[in-house]
Write a structure and sequence with these properties.
Strand content: 15-25%
Distance between the termini: 41 Å
Radius of gyration: 20 Å
Order of helices and strands: HHHEEHEHEEEEEEEE
Number of helices: 5
Structural class: alpha+beta
Largest sheet: 7 strands, antiparallel
Length: 223
């Protein structure tokens, strides 16, 4: 049906439609999600497990640069479905951890090393076949699948801060540093949120300028 002056939407309808379209951001399904965390029983069972993980990291690091990614976590734990809450004392018994717990552990380890670190939440694009495979695996373990929305998924990582407020983004599930140019194609990062419990100026990730504590679509941040 063609639109002419007689059936064009009025100002009120146009304003309503504009609001709707503005809200349909790529991160909308996860807009209010907080970073995952490892729960603590407030007892020695969890404190002993937490100290074991921290001590293991110091042992594996063995005097290397404190900015070295804790790859040993992915060597010790597979990436896989997780059910919440998960307590510190349960972590050593697991064979697989999801991205949220791996990111929470990485953040704890960087912080214990004296590295300034923040939690990172991401929206990534993969393929429908990959999403279908992950959904099936998570459903088999009765884990939540709300992190999957078609070929777009929610993911978590860890950001470490260098000089001049430049950050590096650690993908705890893959065990590598993410290239800030990865904004198109399979595994591309479409949006990013850095959570900081302090007032900080804008952060730079490659050529992307990021304001803390808000979702940023990376297509709008390239300087």
């Amino acid at each position: 049906m063609s639109l002419d002056a007689g059936n064009m939407p009025g100002p009120a309808v146009q304003a309503f439609e504009t609001t709707i379209f503005q809200d349909l951001t790529v991160y909308q399904p996860w807009k209010d999600w907080a970073p995952s965390r490892v729960s603590h029983h407030g007892a020695m069972c969890c404190e002993i497990a937490r100290e074991w993980i921290i001590d293991t990291d110091f042992s594996v690091l063995n005097g290397a640069n404190s900015l070295t990614g804790p790859r040993w976590l992915r060597q010790r734990f597979e990436w896989g479905p997780g059910v919440y809450p998960l307590h510190w004392c349960e972590v050593p018994k697991k064979t697989a951890l999801d991205c949220g717990i791996l990111a929470a552990l990485s953040y704890e380890l960087f912080t214990q090393r004296g590295v300034r670190a923040f939690r990172a939440q991401l929206v990534q694009e993969f393929a429908d076949s990959a999403s279908a495979h992950w959904r099936s695996a998570w459903e088999d373990d009765s884990a939540i699948t709300a992190w999957i929305d078609g070929k777009v998924i929610y993911h978590e990582g860890c950001a470490v801060v260098g000089r001049s407020n430049e950050i590096k983004l650690w993908d705890s599930s893959a065990g590598w540093w993410v290239d800030p140019k990865t904004t198109s194609g399979y595994g591309s990062i479409l949006a990013l949120k850095i959570t900081a419990h302090e007032d900080i100026p804008d952060l730079m990730w490659g050529h992307h300028r990021l304001s803390a504590n808000r979702w940023i679509e990376l297509g709008d941040t390239y300087d």
